[in-house]
Amino acid sequence: MPQAQAPFADMLGGEFGEAEDLDSAMAALQGAMSAEDNQFAPPPPPPPLGATAARSGNVIMNIPVEVQIVLGSTEMSVSELMALGKGSTVALDRRIGEPVDVMVNGRHVARGEITVLDHDPSRFGIRLTEIVSAQPSA
């Protein structure tokens, strides 16, 4: 029976036929493959855990949130609402001087008092007087 030459025989430096030991052919092939693998540099190590956390922290700190200052509220019927017009006054459930609520994305987070801004007396702001503690979810 004639010996067949494997397509990778030149790469491995010889011929392999039916009489050749399959183990020696596999060992030669593995040696050639590992020689090729050694030509490439190992992958760079992963970044330190702190660097990844800092990067994700910066992303979180740049997320916009909606902040609302709630002066008060009231309830009225649809007919009362429809009767409102220019110059109408709506009475709120809070008195002058009572703290206002600070809401962040719809969640009550603080209370404060209305104040005039020192650097711009035509504008007002809120001086925080109380941070509302997180309530456990039910």
TrEMBL record:
Its main location: membrane. Pfam families: FliMN_C. Gene3D superfamilies: SpoA-like. InterPro entries: FliN, FliN-like_C, FliN/MopA/SpaO, FliN_T3SS_HrcQb, SpoA-like_sf. The keyword Nucleotidyltransferase does not apply. The keyword Calcium does not apply. Residues 28-53 are annotated as: Disordered. It is found in: Cell membrane; Bacterial flagellum basal body. PANTHER family: FLAGELLAR MOTOR SWITCH PROTEIN FLIN, PTHR43484. This is Flagellar motor switch protein FliN. The gene is fliN.
